[in-house]
Amino acid sequence: MISKNIEENKDNLKELFNNTSDLILYEFKTLSNHRALIAYINGTIDKVSLNEDVLKPLVEELVSPWDIKSTVYTRINDEIKELKDTIVPINNGLVILFMEGLDFAYTFDLSQWPKRQVEKPTTEMVIRGPKEAFVEDIIVNKTLIRGKIKSNNLIFEDYILGEETNTKVSLVYIKGIVKEGVLEEARYRIEKIKIDAILDNGYIESYIDEKPNRLISTVAFTEKPDIAASKILEGSVGILCDGSPNVLTVPKLFVENLHSAEDYYIRAHYATFLRILRLMAFLASFVIPGVYISLITFHQEMVPTELLISIAGQREGVPLSSPFEALLMILFFELIKESGVRLPEAIGQAVTLVGGLVIGQAAVEAGIVSSTMIIMIASTGMAEFVVPKLRESIPILRLIFLFLGSVSGLYGITSGLVLFTAYLVSMKSFGVPYMWPIAPYDKEGLKDTIGKYSVRKLNYRPEAISNKKRRKRNERID
């Protein structure tokens, strides 16, 4: 219970927060000569507003403890009667006011956390279209989504996750469009999360993904408000996490990996061309090394004679077998890629470029690897960057298909592709088939998959995601 005695409340707060040095306990007297105490965490509040809107009117104008609401210049958030109930508000940047003679306390939301300004996206660059990205502040991120969807049907549902971090998490959806089964499943999985700390939505993804250990994730994420808004408008559920500059969206479909926000701002025929290019790049990114090894090891008769002679000449003097040579180059490529990502931006690009050119050329001249192998691995690396949403899966797939090609040739590659396709078809995301609208087939949904129709002809939201097959407009435009 909150005591009517200020000293007792002060001592209890110190004990409750384990005498942490950034807990500020400021005692003062009001105009009515009553003792008062405010408590907050240093660095989390707007001190100018605290002085002008709370302290000054209490010291100069308060004539009775019961007149606090009409005296202060800011809104009172809540009244607290239990001292333990002050932990979460204080840690969230609220100010707690204790008044002598009152057995409850008032809370004021004067929070002002250090935060990054809205900037350009770093991982989803576009030439045409909005160029703003989410930040680490969940309130700002909510505002960015609200700025895209100015509807009374846009709903945010807030949760607090993490026993120690008390992280704010929010579900966002549009009432009437979202499928109730998907929404209920999202709520259920969020409420089941029991963990000490939530520092990023990656923690949440691990808990809400049906099978977090499988190769491909069934939870999408984006750092662009326009992409999140477009998915929410189609019936998806967004998941915002305080401290994360990305928003999760569920359910996720495979075709989303081949889409870009810019596809909807450019001509349909060019968007279709780019999506076909991304699909080819995805396949090439993990199949090419295995196919190359299988051809030069098991199926030389399928290689043109001139090319086969050229490859044999390049491999003359190379001490490593072709499969081991490919494995070595793949690991070397991953090493360069990882070092370029982890190093400071100013030198990361230079290290990646110099390392790739100098070491690659030196390896060829030393006769450790062949130049054809370097071309193969470099081309797969370039293809990988075309589909960044699958970057966590492609390196593993590349090694799997390299093994299949080294052991069984093209038969192994073909079997692997069949099994991988069956694996994708069997997957579901929050009850929605992952390969929709290809499997199961949906004619209307195919208008916005690999090929893209003009926005004028995309009259329906995805049937698998939205509550029902709702029209996007009131009249058909042919």
TrEMBL record:
Gene Ontology biological-process annotations: spore germination
UniProt KW Nuclease keyword: no
Alphabetical keyword list: Membrane, Transmembrane, Transmembrane helix
GO CC annotation, single: membrane
Segments passing through the bilayer: 276-298, 368-387, 399-425
Family designation: Belongs to the GerABKA family.
Protein name: Spore germination protein
Classification of source organism: Bacteria, Bacillati, Bacillota, Clostridia, Lachnospirales
